[in-house]
Amino acid sequence: MADSEEGFGLPTTPADSEAKELQAEAKQDTQLGATSKSPTSPQAAFTQQGMEGIKVFLHERELWLKFHEVGTEMIITKAGRRMFPSYKVKVTGLNPKTKYILLMDIVPADDHRYKFADNKWSVTGKAEPAMPGRLYVHPDSPATGAHWMRQLVSFQKLKLTNNHLDPFGHVSTGGGRRAPRSVLHPRVASPTTIMAMSPIPTSIVLAGITQLKIENNPFAKGFRGSDDMELHRMSRMQSKEYPVVPRSTVRQKVSSNHSPFSGETRVLSASSNLGSQYQCENGVSSTSQDLLPPANPYPISQEHNQIYHCTKRKDEECSTAEHPYKKPYMETSPAEEDPFYRSSYPQQQGLNTSYRTESAQRQACMYASSAPPTDPVPSLEDISCNTWPSVPSYSSCTVSAMQPMDRLPYQHFSAHFTSGPLMPRLGSVGNHTSPQIGDTHSMFQHQTSVSHQPIVRQCGPQTSIQSPPSSLQPAEFLYSHGVPRTLSPHQYHSVHGVGMVPEWSENS
DNA sequence: TCTCTCACCTT
DNA sequence: GAAGGTGAGAG
């Protein structure tokens, strides 16, 4: 897939010329953040600190959209699995000389528990109390604004796990059978999408997702392949009870009328809906997408969702229809399509060279809140924008500017995220005056959070992450908002994670 | 329901 | 060549 992400609500009100230039460069990226403009808003102080121009663009927006349309979900293991599509963003509007910490965490999208039955996800009860969350600190942190803006910021190595005891600091999304009780919420930008977690057997249940991943994830390339390979593989895996049937022959695109996922029709909005922005009272602008009401966390009525990826056990109900996504996304691998990232990252120099190695990245810091949020359901209005619907989103990112970087106000972990019904989000650590930060001086000058939203579903040891309901247009992947620097760590979570339980695992 | 293992692939 | 990621089946 080409690295084309234009036409998705690009910034229209850059804070300064530099931001404009960067925006121009990011023209193919998805806008994730908006600008805080109102001087009378709660974000006024933030604005004064120069956070108003910070924007975050989601990379590979089209791919995210594809997954969003189908209903993203992923299998999470105890060993930890990377998210796919990987979370990459382009940040603009930072002060080139100021140091920032880039964080990401995962929060529940809602407080429900889900089960997959009758070919659909349905609420089975209320989610259990949220667990303390973790924040994944980008291994390059802290780094100057120039550094962050120089190239894409990739969270590709972030792993999700359902093992809350994970010693590597993977992001826990919870696990066990209870799974999808929540939708995760990306928090860097306006949450326009939802990430819900669902308990899924041991494989992805939503049709289309598997194929999408196979076609796009280079590591799953082994599942692509010719008919010969299909036959070979099927032959290898065939059981005594089932005949060898090429996978290509067991996929079916079912008509709407017969889809087991029949339900409300999700209509991906036109670009007009994606690009328009609204000004929040707090000064944070958001897109019209933000105004959309929360939708069914697991709408599976889209056309794409009606595509069955059958297994041998299902071939009786399948035909030979080919997956519509197969071709479009087979052209290039994510790595191939990302020349910007590939070319620029290796050239990084300066402050953070020590973070460049693989081992260093694995040592990316993980931080957990000391106490779980009182409200498992993030109220976005409480965060920064009252037009921000309390809709779970998938991931969020926060940019924190800081001066000294002695210690972060969170419990430290070594590397990955463990799973729980969480939503990844990039969160900022800055703007705290908490004693935990170290001294009487605020470590951070300002902070901006950015988020976009895929849905994460979770199931037992193997959890699935699901994409946001289509009614929540992923179109608006740009957003940013500030947080008063006077917040304590606890307050921070109130702001960024109200209800977001970045982590709680429930392994059985 | 969950863990292990597999073949195949990328890094 | 080693390490690691992937979806899926077996148990």
Automatic annotation (TrEMBL):
Lineage: superkingdom: Eukaryota
Composition-biased stretches (Basic and acidic residues): 17-28
Protein name as it appears in the record: T-box transcription factor TBX5
SMART domains per record: TBOX
Keywords: Cytoplasm, DNA-binding, Nucleus, Transcription, Transcription regulation
Compartment(s) of residence: Cytoplasm; Nucleus
GO cellular component: chromatin; cytoplasm; nucleus
InterPro entries: p53-like_TF_DNA-bd_sf (IPR008967), T-box_DNA-bd (IPR046360), T-box_sf (IPR036960), TF_T-box (IPR001699), TF_T-box_CS (IPR018186)
Keyword DNA-binding included in the entry's annotation: yes
Pfam families, alphabetized: T-box (PF00907)
PANTHER family cross-referenced by the UniProt entry: T-BOX PROTEIN-RELATED, T-BOX TRANSCRIPTION FACTOR TBX5
Biased composition (Polar residues): 29-45, 249-265
Annotated ranges, domain T-box: 58-225
Gene3D superfamilies, per the entry: Transcription factor, T-box
GO biological process entries: cardiac left ventricle formation; cell fate specification; pattern specification process; positive regulation of DNA-templated transcription
SUPFAM superfamilies, A to Z: p53-like transcription factors
Major subcellular site: cytoplasm
A molecular-function term among this protein's GO annotations: RNA polymerase II cis-regulatory region sequence-specific DNA binding
Region of interest (Disordered), residue spans: 1-45, 241-265
